[in-house]
Design brief:
- This protein is 35% helix and 18% strand.
- The chain is α/β, with parallel strands linked by helices.
- The protein folds into two domains: 180 residues, P-loop containing nucleotide triphosphate hydrolases (Rossmann fold, 3-Layer(aba) Sandwich); 201 residues, Rossmann fold.
- The strands form three sheets. Strands 6-7-5-8-9-4-10 form a seven-stranded parallel sheet, sandwiched between helices. Strands 11-16-15-12-14-13 form a six-stranded parallel sheet, sandwiched between helices. Strands 1-3-2 form a three-stranded antiparallel sheet, with no helix packed on it.
- Strand 13, helix 13 and strand 14 form a beta-alpha-beta unit.
- The chain is globular and about 65 Å long.
- It starts with 5 loop residues before the first strand and ends with a strand.
Length: 404
């Protein structure tokens, strides 16, 4: 990543855009606040959306044309009205059309495909099976949790197959009926190779976070699985970004899709207040981080670092300083990752330290702050990181350390 210089702030008489101002010391001590401006090409400027999303749904959840049990379950989850992607995807998916949704994280895309698919299962007496492929284990588990909450009391079942768990247990699961299979490409391919999972049984395919599937090297696995789905009638694809390569693959997978695009470029949520922490020469980055996290405003925080080694070192130092912290990275077992994520969701720990890859697909509510302890490698990574906060209509703050 090309570093950009941090300049001194303009004089008080000069006009300044609020989005161009960043505090170098966000600990709340007024006399130490040193305002800076950042070059417009830097991530924090480029990621700002041009227009805030002011979408107003045309219906309430209670008025949606779905089974009353689905509505009851959605209301139980405190949903009052569909998000933009949910409302715009509903009719197309319900009709069985191929669908392409280009939307950033935190827009409610999981329910956007689950609600109409569940309604179709009910309408068709569960006569078809659905395969949902995700890039990460955490995302697969979250979709499973969402599916179970939407189908509560409906006698519609799903199985979730992910790496890091015994394959023998997955094989035993397949003896039980299920209308929906959710999983990561590697584990799904493994079960197909062992002839335990028949791809010809599936008529609906959902590829969630398609850009991440490609980024993580799953394109061949996905295309091989798709090739075995000889009875595929509907394909639903969601992605946060698109480029020429992705578009070519999308076109090969989709037939006359309904497309909904809810973003312009690499846009971060307008609900995320982005700031730069510019370290002075000789200032200790770890000490600054600890001081920030000791502020009571930092309730539920994700801290990002580039390597597993640094993630572990950060977590150890935070714990030594009396901060409730834990981490997720590639060396942790699936059970360890699940326990850590559950503890963070339930606020048993204040800080979750993570690498980019380990955090892909996480959907954790009420994250108050994101801190980039190290600058991300590219804009896409930056937008993904800060997208962990400012979700579901709630505001959040993101800090990026520069220098040190």
């Amino acid at each position: 990543m090309n570093r950009t210089s941090v300049h001194h702030s303009p004089k008080k008489s000069e006009s300044r855009s609020p989005r161009a101002q960043f505090r170098t010391n966000p600990t709340g001590k007024k006399k130490q606040n040193r305002f800076k401006t950042i070059d417009p090409v830097h991530f924090a400027k480029k990621s700002n959306p041009e227009v805030a999303n002011s979408y107003v749904a045309s219906m309430m959840i209670k008025d949606m044309p779905v089974d009353s049990s689905i509505i009851e379950n959605l209301l139980r989850k405190k949903y009052s009205h569909p998000t933009e992607i949910q409302e715009k995807a509903f009719e197309a998916i319900l009709k069985g059309s191929d669908f392409l949704g280009l939307a950033k994280t935190g827009t409610g895309k999981t329910a956007a495909f689950l609600v109409p698919l569940v309604q179709n299962l009910l309408s068709n007496n569960a006569s078809h099976q659905i395969l949902i492929i995700t890039p990460t284990r955490e995302l697969a588990l979250q979709i499973e949790e969402e599916y179970k909450s939407i189908t509560l009391g409906l006698k519609l079942f799903c199985h979730c197959f992910i790496g890091g768990t015994p394959v023998e247990a997955d094989i035993r699961k397949l003896r039980l009926p299920a209308q929906v299979i959710i999983g990561t490409p590697g584990r799904i391919a493994d079960l197909v190779m062992q002839r335990k999972l028949n791809m010809q049984l599936f008529s609906v395919l959902v590829l969630d976070e398609f850009d991440r599937l490609l980024d993580m090297g799953f394109s061949r696995d996905v295309m091989e699985l798709v090739g075995k789905m000889t009875h595929r009638k509907q394909t639903i694809l969601f992605s946060a970004t698109e480029d020429a390569t992705q578009r070519n693959l999308m076109n090969s997978l989709l037939k006359h899709p309904v497309e909904v695009k809810l973003y312009t470029g690499h846009a971060a949520s307008d609900l995320v207040d982005q700031e730069i922490v510019a370290l002075k020469p000789g200032e200790n980055k770890m000490d600054v981080l600890i001081k920030m996290l000791q502020d009571k405003a930092f309730i539920k925080v994700m801290v990002f670092a580039e390597t597993k080694h640094l993630v572990k070192r950060l977590t150890a130092r935070l714990k030594m300083s009396g901060i409730r912290a834990d981490d997720i990275h590639g060396n942790k077992s699936q059970n360890q990752r699940i326990r850590t994520l559950d503890a963070f969701k339930m606020k048993k720990i204040q800080v979750l330290v993570a690498t980019d890859v380990a955090s892909r697909g996480l959907d954790i509510t009420d994250v108050s702050h994101v801190i980039n302890f190290q600058e991300p490698k590219n804009l896409d990574s930056y937008v993904h990181r800060i997208g962990r906060t400012g979700r579901a209509g709630k505001s959040g703050k993101a800090y990026t350390f520069i220098g040190g």
